[in-house]
Specification:
This protein has nine helices and ten strands. Strands 3-2-1-4-8-6-9 form a seven-stranded mixed beta sheet. The protein has a three-stranded mixed beta sheet with strand order 5-10-7.
Length: 261
């Protein structure tokens, strides 16, 4: 029997891979296997309601046996105290609250341990993460990982990479809020806009920060699973603009049509 790969011990510091989860089982498997040689603990946050406030199963909890070989390195956070309300602002509050709840599972992280934050479908390339850890850069630096963008299907790649949000990697001492870390934007082409982004990130993280953009750093597999899965996502995530609310019916045709291209 092939032994499960174990994370590194000394001299490298620990890495906590933190992400929210809905029902993306296949992508979770890809993530765990890709990053297993590097990650000390995978921290997964899920809630019994969607960002839109609808009840849902605790999918990971009900299927955790599927990931048994990683069980000793998975920290599962059930967020039972999600904010209530039906306004769009409440949807975003629930998303941010679930993300911030990841901090509950890393109380034992040392100040210089590493924290990586993303959504489960934003999968960093292990070789890139390893290189960042080996550099062992000092100071308040946030590594922003640019990802190849795939939408709907594994063979449908968009020309523009994903960077606006995506994985953020830094030391625990520089994270006062997981959502603030998520909000850290990359530099912009316009110097004034770039300064505004830096200032916003520095204020939210309560310190002047440096941003290091890492190109070709992984894969963002957005809205996989076909039309039905996409429609379910639209009924669950934080956006509720009128054009998005009408998408589930139209998406059945639009997403399915991509396969014919």
């Amino acid at each position: 029997m092939k032994p499960t790969q174990q994370p590194p011990t000394s001299p490298r510091l620990r890495l906590f891979d933190c992400f929210t989860f809905f029902n993306e089982f296949e992508l979770l498997e890809v993530r765990l296997n890709e990053l297993s040689p590097l990650v000390s603990y995978f921290v997964i946050a899920e809630a019994p309601i969607t960002f839109q406030g609808k009840e849902k199963p605790l999918y990971f909890l009900e299927n955790r046996q599927r990931f048994a070989k990683f069980a000793d390195r998975i920290r599962h956070v059930v967020v039972n105290d999600m904010p209530v309300g039906s306004r769009e602002a409440d949807h975003w509050r629930r998303e941010h609250h679930q993300r911030n709840a990841l901090a509950n599972a890393i109380a034992d992280a040392a100040p210089d341990d590493y924290v990586m934050l993303s959504d489960v479908d934003e999968i960093p390339r292990a070789s890139v993460v390893s290189s960042i850890l080996d550099q062992n850069a000092g100071g308040p630096i946030i590594h922003l990982l640019e990802l190849a963008m795939f939408r709907f299907f594994l063979n449908f790649r968009e020309p523009k990479p994903w960077l606006r949000n995506g994985p953020r990697l830094t030391r625990r001492r520089y994270v006062n809020s997981f959502q603030a870390l998520r909000n850290t934007r990359p530099p912009a082409a316009d110097p004034i806009n770039s300064f505004r982004r830096w200032l916003s990130a520095s204020m939210q993280l309560a310190r002047p920060i440096r941003r290091n953009v890492v190109h070709d750093a992984g894969w963002h597999f957005s809205s996989l699973g076909g039309a039905e899965a996409y429609a379910e996502k639209l009924r669950s995530f934080s956006h509720i603009e009128p054009e998005r609310r009408t998408l589930p019916d139209n998406a059945m045709v639009g997403v399915a049509g991509i396969t014919a291209c």
